[in-house]
UniProtKB/TrEMBL annotation:
It comes from Peribacillus cavernae. This is histidine kinase. Its EC number is 2.7.13.3. The keyword Cell inner membrane does not apply. One of its GO terms (molecular function) is phosphorelay sensor kinase activity. Residues 164-221 form the PAS domain. It is an enzyme of class 2 (transferase). Residues 234-288 form the PAC domain.
Length: 515
Protein backbone atom coordinates (compact mmCIF):
# COMPACT_ATOMS: atom_id res chain seq x y z
CA UNK A 1 0.00 0.00 0.00
CA UNK A 2 1.28 3.52 -0.86
CA UNK A 3 2.08 5.07 2.54
CA UNK A 4 1.50 8.62 1.28
CA UNK A 5 -1.87 7.63 -0.17
CA UNK A 6 -2.77 5.94 3.11
CA UNK A 7 -1.76 9.14 4.96
CA UNK A 8 -4.23 11.18 2.87
CA UNK A 9 -6.94 8.55 3.47
CA UNK A 10 -6.43 8.66 7.25
CA UNK A 11 -6.63 12.46 7.21
CA UNK A 12 -10.02 12.31 5.47
CA UNK A 13 -11.24 9.64 7.94
CA UNK A 14 -10.14 11.72 10.93
CA UNK A 15 -11.92 14.77 9.54
CA UNK A 16 -15.07 12.93 8.43
CA UNK A 17 -17.24 14.53 11.13
CA UNK A 18 -15.99 18.00 10.19
CA UNK A 19 -16.47 17.31 6.47
CA UNK A 20 -19.99 15.99 7.02
CA UNK A 21 -20.92 19.05 9.09
CA UNK A 22 -19.46 21.46 6.51
CA UNK A 23 -21.23 19.77 3.58
CA UNK A 24 -24.49 19.66 5.53
CA UNK A 25 -24.27 23.40 6.21
CA UNK A 26 -23.82 24.07 2.48
CA UNK A 27 -26.67 21.82 1.36
CA UNK A 28 -29.28 22.73 4.00
CA UNK A 29 -29.64 26.19 2.45
CA UNK A 30 -31.93 24.61 -0.18
CA UNK A 31 -32.50 21.03 1.09
CA UNK A 32 -34.46 19.89 4.14
CA UNK A 33 -31.89 19.36 6.99
CA UNK A 34 -33.81 16.27 8.17
CA UNK A 35 -32.39 14.30 5.22
CA UNK A 36 -28.96 14.32 6.86
CA UNK A 37 -29.95 13.07 10.31
CA UNK A 38 -30.25 9.35 11.19
CA UNK A 39 -33.77 7.82 10.99
CA UNK A 40 -35.11 5.05 13.22
CA UNK A 41 -34.91 2.54 10.36
CA UNK A 42 -31.45 3.88 9.38
CA UNK A 43 -29.69 4.78 12.64
CA UNK A 44 -26.28 5.42 11.04
CA UNK A 45 -24.90 8.91 10.39
CA UNK A 46 -24.64 8.19 6.66
CA UNK A 47 -23.03 11.51 5.68
CA UNK A 48 -20.16 11.02 8.11
CA UNK A 49 -19.87 7.37 6.97
CA UNK A 50 -19.70 8.64 3.38
CA UNK A 51 -16.51 10.64 4.07
CA UNK A 52 -15.05 7.90 6.31
CA UNK A 53 -15.49 5.42 3.47
CA UNK A 54 -13.81 7.75 0.94
CA UNK A 55 -10.85 7.88 3.33
CA UNK A 56 -10.97 4.10 3.81
CA UNK A 57 -10.93 3.57 0.03
CA UNK A 58 -7.49 5.20 -0.15
CA UNK A 59 -6.31 2.72 2.49
CA UNK A 60 -8.21 -0.53 1.80
CA UNK A 61 -10.72 -1.01 -1.02
CA UNK A 62 -13.90 -3.03 -1.62
CA UNK A 63 -15.63 -2.68 1.78
CA UNK A 64 -15.17 1.09 1.70
CA UNK A 65 -16.64 1.28 -1.81
CA UNK A 66 -19.70 -0.74 -0.72
CA UNK A 67 -20.24 1.69 2.16
CA UNK A 68 -20.08 4.67 -0.23
CA UNK A 69 -22.71 3.09 -2.45
CA UNK A 70 -24.81 2.35 0.67
CA UNK A 71 -24.69 6.05 1.60
CA UNK A 72 -25.66 7.04 -1.96
CA UNK A 73 -28.55 4.56 -1.75
CA UNK A 74 -29.79 6.05 1.54
CA UNK A 75 -29.61 9.61 0.22
CA UNK A 76 -31.20 8.60 -3.10
CA UNK A 77 -34.24 7.03 -1.42
CA UNK A 78 -34.69 9.98 0.93
CA UNK A 79 -34.32 12.54 -1.86
CA UNK A 80 -36.85 10.77 -4.07
CA UNK A 81 -39.30 10.29 -1.17
CA UNK A 82 -38.99 13.98 -0.27
CA UNK A 83 -39.50 14.99 -3.94
CA UNK A 84 -36.33 17.03 -4.02
CA UNK A 85 -35.42 18.17 -7.55
CA UNK A 86 -32.47 16.12 -8.86
CA UNK A 87 -30.39 19.18 -9.72
CA UNK A 88 -30.53 20.22 -6.05
CA UNK A 89 -29.76 16.70 -4.83
CA UNK A 90 -26.79 16.37 -7.21
CA UNK A 91 -25.19 19.31 -5.40
CA UNK A 92 -24.12 16.82 -2.69
CA UNK A 93 -21.70 15.14 -5.10
CA UNK A 94 -20.57 18.40 -6.71
CA UNK A 95 -19.76 19.99 -3.33
CA UNK A 96 -18.21 16.77 -1.96
CA UNK A 97 -15.19 17.26 -4.21
CA UNK A 98 -14.78 20.90 -3.20
CA UNK A 99 -15.12 20.21 0.54
CA UNK A 100 -12.54 17.38 0.44
CA UNK A 101 -10.02 19.34 -1.67
CA UNK A 102 -10.33 22.45 0.56
CA UNK A 103 -9.84 20.23 3.62
CA UNK A 104 -6.77 18.51 2.16
CA UNK A 105 -5.17 21.80 1.10
CA UNK A 106 -5.11 22.81 4.77
CA UNK A 107 -4.27 19.40 6.26
CA UNK A 108 -1.36 18.46 3.97
CA UNK A 109 0.12 21.95 3.73
CA UNK A 110 3.85 21.60 4.33
CA UNK A 111 3.76 17.81 4.00
CA UNK A 112 6.02 16.45 1.27
CA UNK A 113 3.80 14.37 -0.98
CA UNK A 114 4.71 13.24 -4.49
CA UNK A 115 2.77 14.63 -7.45
CA UNK A 116 1.96 11.06 -8.47
CA UNK A 117 0.35 10.34 -5.07
CA UNK A 118 -1.75 13.54 -5.18
CA UNK A 119 -2.95 12.72 -8.71
CA UNK A 120 -3.76 9.14 -7.72
CA UNK A 121 -5.68 10.29 -4.63
CA UNK A 122 -7.64 12.87 -6.66
CA UNK A 123 -8.44 10.34 -9.38
CA UNK A 124 -9.58 7.72 -6.82
CA UNK A 125 -11.79 10.21 -4.97
CA UNK A 126 -13.35 11.43 -8.25
CA UNK A 127 -14.05 7.86 -9.36
CA UNK A 128 -15.73 7.02 -6.05
CA UNK A 129 -17.88 10.15 -6.13
CA UNK A 130 -18.82 9.39 -9.76
CA UNK A 131 -19.89 5.86 -8.75
CA UNK A 132 -21.90 7.24 -5.86
CA UNK A 133 -23.63 9.80 -8.12
CA UNK A 134 -24.46 7.07 -10.66
CA UNK A 135 -25.97 4.93 -7.90
CA UNK A 136 -27.88 7.95 -6.66
CA UNK A 137 -29.28 8.78 -10.13
CA UNK A 138 -30.61 5.24 -10.45
CA UNK A 139 -33.26 6.11 -7.82
CA UNK A 140 -34.54 8.93 -10.01
CA UNK A 141 -34.50 6.60 -13.00
CA UNK A 142 -36.66 4.12 -11.08
CA UNK A 143 -38.91 6.93 -9.96
CA UNK A 144 -39.25 8.19 -13.51
CA UNK A 145 -39.98 4.65 -14.76
CA UNK A 146 -42.86 4.35 -12.31
CA UNK A 147 -44.12 7.77 -13.31
CA UNK A 148 -44.01 6.73 -16.98
CA UNK A 149 -46.93 4.31 -16.55
CA UNK A 150 -48.98 6.88 -14.61
CA UNK A 151 -48.80 9.54 -17.35
CA UNK A 152 -51.91 8.33 -19.12
CA UNK A 153 -54.03 8.72 -15.95
CA UNK A 154 -53.10 12.20 -14.89
CA UNK A 155 -52.14 15.27 -16.90
CA UNK A 156 -50.91 16.86 -13.68
CA UNK A 157 -48.56 13.93 -13.13
CA UNK A 158 -47.27 14.47 -16.65
CA UNK A 159 -46.33 18.06 -15.87
CA UNK A 160 -44.51 16.99 -12.71
CA UNK A 161 -42.57 14.26 -14.49
CA UNK A 162 -41.54 16.56 -17.32
CA UNK A 163 -40.28 19.05 -14.75
CA UNK A 164 -38.21 16.35 -13.04
CA UNK A 165 -36.75 15.27 -16.36
CA UNK A 166 -35.94 18.88 -17.19
CA UNK A 167 -34.32 19.35 -13.78
CA UNK A 168 -32.21 16.23 -14.30
CA UNK A 169 -31.24 17.43 -17.77
CA UNK A 170 -30.26 20.82 -16.35
CA UNK A 171 -28.17 19.15 -13.65
CA UNK A 172 -26.32 17.06 -16.23
CA UNK A 173 -25.84 20.07 -18.53
CA UNK A 174 -24.32 22.13 -15.76
CA UNK A 175 -21.91 19.51 -14.39
CA UNK A 176 -20.88 17.26 -17.31
CA UNK A 177 -20.15 16.95 -21.01
CA UNK A 178 -23.46 15.40 -22.03
CA UNK A 179 -24.80 13.92 -25.28
CA UNK A 180 -27.53 11.54 -26.48
CA UNK A 181 -26.87 9.07 -29.31
CA UNK A 182 -29.29 6.84 -31.21
CA UNK A 183 -28.85 3.11 -31.93
CA UNK A 184 -26.90 3.91 -35.12
CA UNK A 185 -24.38 5.99 -33.13
CA UNK A 186 -25.70 9.27 -34.55
CA UNK A 187 -25.74 12.23 -32.16
CA UNK A 188 -29.28 13.47 -31.44
CA UNK A 189 -28.50 15.89 -28.60
CA UNK A 190 -25.38 17.68 -27.32
CA UNK A 191 -25.08 20.24 -24.53
CA UNK A 192 -22.97 23.39 -24.55
CA UNK A 193 -20.02 21.75 -22.77
CA UNK A 194 -19.96 19.04 -25.46
CA UNK A 195 -19.84 21.70 -28.18
CA UNK A 196 -17.14 23.67 -26.32
CA UNK A 197 -14.74 20.73 -26.12
CA UNK A 198 -15.41 19.39 -29.65
CA UNK A 199 -15.31 22.88 -31.26
CA UNK A 200 -18.48 22.03 -33.23
CA UNK A 201 -21.69 24.07 -33.06
CA UNK A 202 -24.93 22.25 -32.24
CA UNK A 203 -26.08 22.67 -35.84
CA UNK A 204 -22.88 21.02 -37.09
CA UNK A 205 -22.79 18.09 -34.65
CA UNK A 206 -26.46 17.05 -34.43
CA UNK A 207 -27.05 14.19 -36.86
CA UNK A 208 -23.34 13.42 -37.21
CA UNK A 209 -22.03 9.94 -36.44
CA UNK A 210 -19.79 9.68 -33.39
CA UNK A 211 -16.88 8.58 -35.58
CA UNK A 212 -16.44 12.24 -36.59
CA UNK A 213 -14.66 12.56 -33.22
CA UNK A 214 -12.37 9.54 -33.68
CA UNK A 215 -8.73 10.53 -33.13
CA UNK A 216 -7.14 7.36 -34.49
CA UNK A 217 -5.54 6.66 -31.10
CA UNK A 218 -7.80 3.70 -30.30
CA UNK A 219 -8.03 0.68 -32.64
CA UNK A 220 -11.37 -0.26 -34.21
CA UNK A 221 -11.55 -3.29 -31.88
CA UNK A 222 -11.74 -0.90 -28.92
CA UNK A 223 -14.90 0.79 -30.23
CA UNK A 224 -16.45 -2.53 -31.28
CA UNK A 225 -16.22 -3.72 -27.67
CA UNK A 226 -17.85 -0.46 -26.53
CA UNK A 227 -20.71 -0.92 -29.00
CA UNK A 228 -21.18 -4.55 -28.00
CA UNK A 229 -21.40 -3.57 -24.31
CA UNK A 230 -24.08 -0.96 -25.15
CA UNK A 231 -26.04 -3.43 -27.31
CA UNK A 232 -26.14 -5.82 -24.36
CA UNK A 233 -27.78 -3.10 -22.25
CA UNK A 234 -24.73 -2.72 -19.99
CA UNK A 235 -23.12 0.51 -18.81
CA UNK A 236 -19.63 1.14 -20.25
CA UNK A 237 -17.01 3.20 -18.44
CA UNK A 238 -13.55 4.15 -19.62
CA UNK A 239 -11.19 6.81 -20.95
CA UNK A 240 -11.30 7.92 -24.61
CA UNK A 241 -9.11 10.22 -26.67
CA UNK A 242 -11.23 12.21 -29.16
CA UNK A 243 -10.34 14.74 -31.87
CA UNK A 244 -11.98 18.17 -32.01
CA UNK A 245 -13.01 20.01 -35.17
CA UNK A 246 -9.73 21.99 -35.24
CA UNK A 247 -7.65 18.80 -35.13
CA UNK A 248 -6.63 19.03 -31.47
CA UNK A 249 -7.10 15.97 -29.29
CA UNK A 250 -8.57 15.72 -25.81
CA UNK A 251 -9.22 12.98 -23.22
CA UNK A 252 -12.57 12.32 -21.53
CA UNK A 253 -13.55 9.99 -18.71
CA UNK A 254 -16.76 8.54 -20.14
CA UNK A 255 -19.82 6.74 -18.79
CA UNK A 256 -22.17 5.42 -21.50
CA UNK A 257 -25.64 4.44 -20.26
CA UNK A 258 -27.94 2.52 -22.67
CA UNK A 259 -31.74 2.86 -22.82
CA UNK A 260 -33.74 -0.23 -23.80
CA UNK A 261 -37.33 -0.64 -25.01
CA UNK A 262 -39.82 -3.23 -23.73
CA UNK A 263 -38.25 -5.87 -25.94
CA UNK A 264 -34.86 -5.31 -24.40
CA UNK A 265 -33.48 -3.66 -27.55
CA UNK A 266 -31.20 -0.65 -27.05
CA UNK A 267 -32.63 2.31 -28.91
CA UNK A 268 -30.31 5.07 -27.63
CA UNK A 269 -27.67 5.80 -25.03
CA UNK A 270 -26.45 8.84 -23.14
CA UNK A 271 -22.82 9.75 -22.55
CA UNK A 272 -21.73 11.51 -19.39
CA UNK A 273 -18.13 12.72 -19.70
CA UNK A 274 -15.52 14.72 -17.82
CA UNK A 275 -12.51 16.42 -19.40
CA UNK A 276 -9.30 14.75 -18.11
CA UNK A 277 -6.88 16.10 -20.74
CA UNK A 278 -4.76 17.98 -18.21
CA UNK A 279 -4.66 14.96 -15.93
CA UNK A 280 -3.47 12.70 -18.78
CA UNK A 281 -0.83 15.25 -19.77
CA UNK A 282 0.47 15.33 -16.20
CA UNK A 283 0.59 11.52 -16.06
CA UNK A 284 2.57 11.38 -19.32
CA UNK A 285 4.94 14.04 -18.00
CA UNK A 286 5.54 11.99 -14.87
CA UNK A 287 6.28 8.89 -16.97
CA UNK A 288 8.78 10.80 -19.10
CA UNK A 289 10.45 12.17 -15.98
CA UNK A 290 10.81 8.66 -14.57
CA UNK A 291 12.31 7.42 -17.84
CA UNK A 292 14.79 10.31 -17.93
CA UNK A 293 15.77 9.49 -14.37
CA UNK A 294 16.44 5.91 -15.45
CA UNK A 295 18.53 7.16 -18.37
CA UNK A 296 20.57 9.22 -15.93
CA UNK A 297 21.26 6.19 -13.76
CA UNK A 298 22.26 4.13 -16.82
CA UNK A 299 24.50 6.93 -18.10
CA UNK A 300 26.33 7.22 -14.80
CA UNK A 301 26.83 3.44 -14.71
CA UNK A 302 28.11 2.83 -18.23
CA UNK A 303 30.12 6.01 -18.96
CA UNK A 304 33.14 4.74 -17.03
CA UNK A 305 33.05 1.34 -18.79
CA UNK A 306 32.93 2.99 -22.23
CA UNK A 307 35.74 5.47 -21.59
CA UNK A 308 38.26 2.86 -20.43
CA UNK A 309 38.45 0.90 -23.73
CA UNK A 310 38.38 4.18 -25.67
CA UNK A 311 41.48 5.35 -23.83
CA UNK A 312 43.22 2.05 -24.63
CA UNK A 313 42.31 2.23 -28.36
CA UNK A 314 43.48 5.83 -28.59
CA UNK A 315 46.79 5.00 -26.92
CA UNK A 316 47.57 2.10 -29.25
CA UNK A 317 46.70 4.15 -32.36
CA UNK A 318 49.17 6.80 -31.20
CA UNK A 319 51.83 4.12 -30.50
CA UNK A 320 51.32 2.60 -33.97
CA UNK A 321 51.79 6.03 -35.53
CA UNK A 322 55.02 6.60 -33.62
CA UNK A 323 56.29 3.10 -34.52
CA UNK A 324 56.19 3.83 -38.27
CA UNK A 325 59.27 5.38 -39.82
CA UNK A 326 57.46 8.38 -41.23
CA UNK A 327 55.09 8.52 -38.27
CA UNK A 328 52.10 8.61 -40.58
CA UNK A 329 49.56 5.84 -39.91
CA UNK A 330 46.83 5.94 -42.62
CA UNK A 331 43.58 7.46 -41.35
CA UNK A 332 45.04 7.84 -37.83
CA UNK A 333 43.85 11.46 -37.58
CA UNK A 334 40.30 10.38 -38.54
CA UNK A 335 40.37 7.48 -36.04
CA UNK A 336 41.62 9.71 -33.23
CA UNK A 337 39.11 12.41 -34.13
CA UNK A 338 36.20 9.94 -34.03
CA UNK A 339 37.44 8.48 -30.71
CA UNK A 340 37.43 12.01 -29.27
CA UNK A 341 33.90 12.51 -30.63
CA UNK A 342 32.71 9.24 -29.05
CA UNK A 343 34.22 10.37 -25.76
CA UNK A 344 32.43 13.70 -26.13
CA UNK A 345 29.10 11.98 -26.87
CA UNK A 346 29.51 9.90 -23.70
CA UNK A 347 30.08 13.16 -21.82
CA UNK A 348 26.90 14.59 -23.35
CA UNK A 349 25.00 11.46 -22.41
CA UNK A 350 26.00 12.24 -18.83
CA UNK A 351 23.91 15.44 -19.07
CA UNK A 352 20.94 13.30 -18.04
CA UNK A 353 22.81 12.09 -14.97
CA UNK A 354 24.65 15.27 -14.00
CA UNK A 355 24.34 18.44 -16.11
CA UNK A 356 27.60 20.29 -16.73
CA UNK A 357 28.83 23.52 -18.32
CA UNK A 358 29.03 23.70 -22.12
CA UNK A 359 31.00 26.47 -23.85
CA UNK A 360 29.26 27.89 -26.92
CA UNK A 361 31.00 29.65 -29.80
CA UNK A 362 30.28 30.94 -33.29
CA UNK A 363 29.46 27.90 -35.46
CA UNK A 364 29.18 27.64 -39.24
CA UNK A 365 26.21 25.33 -39.83
CA UNK A 366 27.09 24.66 -43.49
CA UNK A 367 30.61 23.49 -42.55
CA UNK A 368 29.18 21.12 -39.94
CA UNK A 369 26.67 19.73 -42.46
CA UNK A 370 29.41 19.21 -45.09
CA UNK A 371 31.47 17.35 -42.48
CA UNK A 372 28.52 15.10 -41.57
CA UNK A 373 27.74 14.36 -45.24
CA UNK A 374 31.39 13.45 -45.79
CA UNK A 375 31.42 11.07 -42.80
CA UNK A 376 28.27 9.21 -43.86
CA UNK A 377 28.80 9.41 -47.62
CA UNK A 378 30.40 5.98 -47.84
CA UNK A 379 27.63 4.30 -45.84
CA UNK A 380 25.00 6.01 -48.00
CA UNK A 381 26.68 4.79 -51.22
CA UNK A 382 26.79 1.21 -49.93
CA UNK A 383 23.03 1.34 -49.32
CA UNK A 384 22.31 2.95 -52.71
CA UNK A 385 21.23 6.21 -51.09
CA UNK A 386 21.86 9.50 -52.95
CA UNK A 387 22.46 12.58 -50.78
CA UNK A 388 22.02 16.02 -52.35
CA UNK A 389 22.37 19.39 -50.67
CA UNK A 390 21.17 22.90 -51.31
CA UNK A 391 22.67 25.56 -49.06
CA UNK A 392 21.23 29.03 -49.72
CA UNK A 393 22.06 30.91 -46.54
CA UNK A 394 24.68 33.67 -46.83
CA UNK A 395 25.09 33.88 -43.06
CA UNK A 396 24.84 30.30 -41.77
CA UNK A 397 26.15 31.10 -38.29
CA UNK A 398 24.61 30.28 -34.94
CA UNK A 399 25.84 30.43 -31.37
CA UNK A 400 26.40 26.85 -30.22
CA UNK A 401 28.68 23.90 -29.52
CA UNK A 402 30.13 22.39 -32.69
CA UNK A 403 30.40 18.78 -31.51
CA UNK A 404 26.85 18.75 -30.15
CA UNK A 405 25.47 20.11 -33.43
CA UNK A 406 27.49 17.55 -35.35
CA UNK A 407 26.01 14.82 -33.17
CA UNK A 408 22.45 16.06 -33.94
CA UNK A 409 22.96 16.12 -37.71
CA UNK A 410 24.71 12.73 -37.67
CA UNK A 411 21.73 11.21 -35.83
CA UNK A 412 19.25 12.77 -38.25
CA UNK A 413 21.12 11.80 -41.41
CA UNK A 414 21.84 8.27 -40.18
CA UNK A 415 18.13 7.80 -39.38
CA UNK A 416 17.23 9.05 -42.87
CA UNK A 417 19.62 6.52 -44.46
CA UNK A 418 18.17 3.69 -42.37
CA UNK A 419 14.66 4.73 -43.45
CA UNK A 420 15.67 3.81 -47.04
CA UNK A 421 16.26 0.01 -46.87
CA UNK A 422 15.99 -0.30 -50.67
CA UNK A 423 17.87 2.90 -51.48
CA UNK A 424 16.47 6.31 -52.32
CA UNK A 425 17.12 10.04 -52.05
CA UNK A 426 17.92 12.39 -49.18
CA UNK A 427 17.74 16.15 -49.62
CA UNK A 428 19.54 18.42 -47.15
CA UNK A 429 18.84 22.13 -47.41
CA UNK A 430 20.05 25.13 -45.44
CA UNK A 431 18.34 28.51 -45.61
CA UNK A 432 17.82 31.63 -43.56
CA UNK A 433 14.51 33.33 -42.87
CA UNK A 434 14.41 36.64 -40.99
CA UNK A 435 16.37 35.91 -37.80
CA UNK A 436 16.43 32.10 -38.07
CA UNK A 437 18.59 29.41 -39.67
CA UNK A 438 16.53 26.53 -41.04
CA UNK A 439 17.88 23.04 -41.79
CA UNK A 440 15.68 20.53 -43.65
CA UNK A 441 16.57 16.83 -43.87
CA UNK A 442 14.04 15.06 -46.12
CA UNK A 443 13.96 11.45 -47.34
CA UNK A 444 11.55 9.50 -49.54
CA UNK A 445 11.65 6.42 -47.29
CA UNK A 446 9.14 4.35 -45.33
CA UNK A 447 7.76 7.27 -43.31
CA UNK A 448 5.94 7.20 -39.96
CA UNK A 449 2.41 7.25 -38.61
CA UNK A 450 0.99 10.12 -36.51
CA UNK A 451 1.27 8.00 -33.37
CA UNK A 452 4.96 7.33 -34.05
CA UNK A 453 5.67 11.02 -34.68
CA UNK A 454 4.08 11.99 -31.36
CA UNK A 455 6.38 9.59 -29.48
CA UNK A 456 9.63 10.77 -31.10
CA UNK A 457 12.15 11.96 -28.54
CA UNK A 458 10.74 9.84 -25.73
CA UNK A 459 13.35 7.76 -23.85
CA UNK A 460 13.74 4.24 -25.28
CA UNK A 461 11.15 4.76 -28.04
CA UNK A 462 12.42 3.62 -31.44
CA UNK A 463 10.96 2.56 -34.79
CA UNK A 464 14.05 0.46 -35.62
CA UNK A 465 14.56 -3.18 -34.72
CA UNK A 466 18.06 -2.57 -33.34
CA UNK A 467 17.49 0.98 -32.09
CA UNK A 468 17.78 2.15 -28.48
CA UNK A 469 15.54 5.20 -28.63
CA UNK A 470 18.32 7.36 -27.15
CA UNK A 471 19.71 9.10 -30.26
CA UNK A 472 16.71 11.33 -30.91
CA UNK A 473 16.17 11.88 -27.21
CA UNK A 474 19.69 13.35 -26.89
CA UNK A 475 19.25 15.29 -30.16
CA UNK A 476 16.01 16.88 -28.96
CA UNK A 477 17.73 17.89 -25.73
CA UNK A 478 20.68 19.46 -27.60
CA UNK A 479 18.35 21.42 -29.93
CA UNK A 480 16.38 22.66 -26.92
CA UNK A 481 19.61 23.81 -25.20
CA UNK A 482 20.52 25.74 -28.36
CA UNK A 483 17.16 27.57 -28.15
CA UNK A 484 16.06 25.82 -31.32
CA UNK A 485 13.01 23.86 -32.34
CA UNK A 486 12.34 20.71 -34.35
CA UNK A 487 9.29 19.84 -36.46
CA UNK A 488 8.48 16.55 -38.16
CA UNK A 489 6.24 15.84 -41.15
CA UNK A 490 5.75 12.28 -42.33
CA UNK A 491 3.36 9.86 -43.97
CA UNK A 492 3.56 6.09 -44.06
CA UNK A 493 5.42 5.16 -47.28
CA UNK A 494 5.52 8.87 -48.11
CA UNK A 495 8.88 9.90 -46.65
CA UNK A 496 9.86 12.07 -43.68
CA UNK A 497 11.04 15.68 -43.33
CA UNK A 498 12.81 16.96 -40.21
CA UNK A 499 12.90 20.77 -39.97
CA UNK A 500 15.37 22.15 -37.41
CA UNK A 501 15.31 25.89 -36.67
CA UNK A 502 18.01 27.81 -34.77
CA UNK A 503 18.21 31.54 -33.98
CA UNK A 504 20.71 33.21 -36.37
CA UNK A 505 23.83 34.74 -34.88
CA UNK A 506 24.45 38.35 -35.89
CA UNK A 507 27.99 39.69 -35.63
CA UNK A 508 27.05 42.15 -32.87
CA UNK A 509 25.47 39.28 -30.88
CA UNK A 510 28.68 37.28 -31.20
CA UNK A 511 30.72 40.21 -29.89
CA UNK A 512 28.35 40.65 -26.93
CA UNK A 513 28.52 36.93 -26.08
CA UNK A 514 32.35 36.98 -26.16
CA UNK A 515 32.39 39.98 -23.80
Amino acid sequence: MNEQLEYIGNKIKQGSHFLAQKLSNILTVEIDPSLFIPFEDQPIDWLELYFQSIGDSLCSGEIAERNILLCADIFGRRAVDSEIPPDKSMDLFVHSRTVILDFLLIEIDGIKLSTKTILLATKTINQLIDKASSAFISHYQKSLSIAKYALAESSEDLKITLKELNDLKNALNETTIFAITDKNDNITYANDKFCDITKYTKEEIIGQNHNVLFSGYHPEEFFEKVRETIRQGKVWKGEIMNKAKDGTTYWVDSTLIPFSDRNGETYQHISIQNDITEQKFTEELLQKTEKLSLVGELAAGIAHEIRNPLTTIKGFVQLLSQALENGDLPYSSIILGEIDRINFIVSEFMVFAKPHTIYYNKCNVSEILYSVISLLGAEASLKNVRITNRFLSENPYIFGEKNQLKQVFLNMLKNAIEALPDGGNIQISLSSEEQDIQVLIADDGIGMSLDQIQKLGEPFYTTKETGTGLGLMVSYKIIQNHKGSIHVKSNVDGGTTFTIVFPMLAEKDHAENIQ
